[in-house]
Every structure is written in C-alpha cells, then in structure tokens.
Amino acid sequence: MRNAAALEPADSHDHAQRAATAPPGASATRPLFVTSDEALLDALLRLAAAAGVTPDVAPDEVAARRSWSAAPMVLVGDDVAARTAAGSPPRRPGVLVVTRTPGDLTVWQQSVTIGAEQVLMLPDDETSLIGRLADTVDDRGRAGFTAAVVGGCGGAGTSTFAAALAVAGSALGARALLLDGDPLGGGLDLVLGTESVPGVRWPDLMGTSGRVSAPSLREALPQVGTLSVLSGDRGDLTTIPPAVMREVLAAGRRGHDVVVVDLPRRLDPAAEEVLLKADTTYLVVPGEVRAVAAAGRVAGQLGACTPEVQLVVRGPGPSGLDGPLVSESLDLPLAAQMRPERGLDAALDAGEGLWRRRRGPLARTCRVLLERELARRGSSA
C-alpha cells in the first residue's frame, strides 16, 4: 500500500500543475475535484498522486457542471459545498464532501443536499480516500465478472466447478483469478494440480491491513498462464478475517477480468463479503432429492447477501430430477445443467488437474457461462 506521506513535495507540485491545467470535462475517466481552497486542493492532489490518479479540477460549482455526471468520482471541498448545494446538481453515486474542520454540522447538512455518500475528514480519512481514488483507475478498459460458487449440499462438486470456471476464463484469454474462500476445504491448488507452483497462500496474507495493490497481488500469487490462484496451505488456518477478504477481493477485481471464489456452505463473515460483491452466485446442486432439500436452506441464506443466484445442476440424477425440475423446486433460474464427467474424479486424485480436460461437459458448461457473462458486460477477452 502506498503512503501519501512518503511522496516528495515536488511530486505534489508537478501533479498539481498538470491537474490544474486540465479543463473540466476533459476526461470522463478522471475524478473531479471541486474546490477553490488552495491548501485543501494541495492536500487532495497529494493524495491523488499517491493513488496514481490525475484529476480534473474545477474552482466552483459552475465550472464543475461539464463533468459532474461523467466523472467516476466527485470530491467537493467544504469551501464550495454551500454553493454547490444551492445549484442542485444532478444526483449521482460517488460524490464525497471533504473537510478539514471537525464537528462542522453545516458541512454535513450541505452534503445531504448535494447527495454525497460520505463526508471525509482530513487528515484522518486520507488512507480511505487514497483507496477510493485508486479504485477509479481502470488500466484495462473492460468490464470484469466476479462469480461466487456455493454448494447446495456436501459433495456437490463446488470446488471442481469453481476451478473449472476459472480455467475457462483463462482459456478464453481473460486474466483470471481463483480465490479459495473455504479454509476448511482441501485446497483449490490440489484441484488444479498447482500445489508445487511457488507464490503466496492465504496464511501469508493474514497480516494484511489497508489497501492491497492489484499488480502486487497478481505478481505474488501462484500463476499458470493467465490464471492466478490464492489457496490455503493445509495448515492451521481455519478462518479468513473479513477485512482481509475484502481488501484481497477488491485488489483481485481491479487486476483481473474474471474472479471466481469458492465459498463454504455455512456462510461466515468473509463469505458474506464476497457475496455482496459478486455479480452472480452459482449454487451447485446434484439432481437428487436430498441434495435439493439441503440446497433450499442454503439458497435462503444466499438470498439475503447476494443480488443474483443461479443454479448449476449436476444431473439428471437417479430419480430423474433434472435442471428444470430443480429450478422449479427451488424457484431459482437455471444457469446450466451438466452430466457427470467420466473419469474426472480419478484424474483429480492422480494430480492431473483440470488443464487437460478441456472438452468434457464441465469445461463446455463453464466456457458457455463465461462467454455469456463477459458478452453481457461488454468485456472482450
């Protein structure tokens, strides 16, 4: 994590010159700073430099109008908050009011009128603001996809499906990340056959605090081609702190096109962090009566945490339960149905991983799902 205090004054000055000469509305990818307070602007430009961001600067609410709606984030200084509120700007997400005066109730009232998400106090909130600014940078220019995978019952094949989904992303040319969100599982690196590939595992990240750099995370993880993997090490780790999961997931989403997270059925706080950010949660269910009954309880938990749950059904089962019947029973949309894959379990036990199995039902299903989701989000792998 970069520290604003570590920047040299010359960096701030150069950055301020570049930002000040940028006309408002010049770039829809730049955050917008609205303030005429030179001291506050200098502090904000210093933080922008720490985040690697070049902002547009408007001295007042009139100059801000051109890029107010298009900017990925708008920071309004307390010196112009009253005039900005009086101008009734369009409501939009990502508006923050910044002040250096503690306990000023007027600023809070003006922030409500503007529709600001938050009032940030400097210097106390500098670290948070650096992270928010850095999140506005998209160095890849494409929309990503984050999937959570949860089993409807024990032995549903969740880890195998999650790993295959990430492998499919890599095969499509996407920068993919597979996160093991179940510390009590056997380890996703065993499913992939990457347990001997060097790189950091979850225990190495337990002391993480603050914002995690996306490039640094990507470079530190075990990689096979364009797929990065964060797994456990089969040690004593039994839980992942939710704050660590939150920061690692945020860095993963910033640095990858496809992020797949394998989660436990019994949701813990770390799993809830993932579900809140997931674009889609896949509930994997075998086509069996008991499995469907168990999946109903899991689905009830998921509905409170994630906006979109879709079914992946393995079957039909011995009793004839197929995808449409399971979908009707659980009242959830069916994403895919796939038949059992002959020899898959034996191959995984032999340490072959999923890399050699690119044409079976599992690989085909995952490829179709990802192609659909990436196309829907306008992502080009």
Individual helix count: 15
First-to-last CA distance? 28 Å
In terms of quaternary structure, what is this? single chain
What string gives the helices and strands in order? HEHEHEHEHEHEHEHHEEHEHEHEHEHH
| pLDDT averaged residue by residue | 84
Short account of what is shown:
By secondary structure, this protein is an alpha/beta fold.
Describe this structure in words.
This protein is an alpha/beta fold. Helix content is 39%, strand content 16%. It is built from 15 helices and 13 strands. Strands 8-9-7-10-6-11-12-13 form an 8-stranded mixed sheet, with helices on both faces. Strands 2-1-3-4-5 form a 5-stranded parallel sheet, sandwiched between helices. Strand 3, helix 4 (81-86) and strand 4 (95-99) form a beta-alpha-beta unit. The protein starts with 8 loop residues before the first helix and ends in a 5-residue tail after the last helix.
Which features would summarize this protein structure in a list?
eight-stranded mixed beta sheet, alpha/beta, 16% strand, 381 residues, 15 helices, disordered N terminus, five-stranded parallel beta sheet, 13 strands
List the helices and strands and how they pair.
Elements: H1 9-21, E1 32-34, H2 38-51, E2 56-58, H3 61-64, E3 74-77, H4 81-86, E4 95-99, H5 105-114, E5 118-121, H6 126-134, E6 145-151, H7 158-171, E7 176-180, H8 188-192, H9 214-220, E8 223-224, E9 227-230, H10 242-255, E10 258-263, H11 269-277, E11 280-286, H12 289-303, E12 309-314, H13 323-330, E13 334-338, H14 344-349, H15 361-376
Parallel strand pairs: 1-2, 1-3, 3-4, 4-5, 6-10, 6-11, 7-9, 7-10, 11-12, 12-13
Antiparallel strand pairs: 8-9
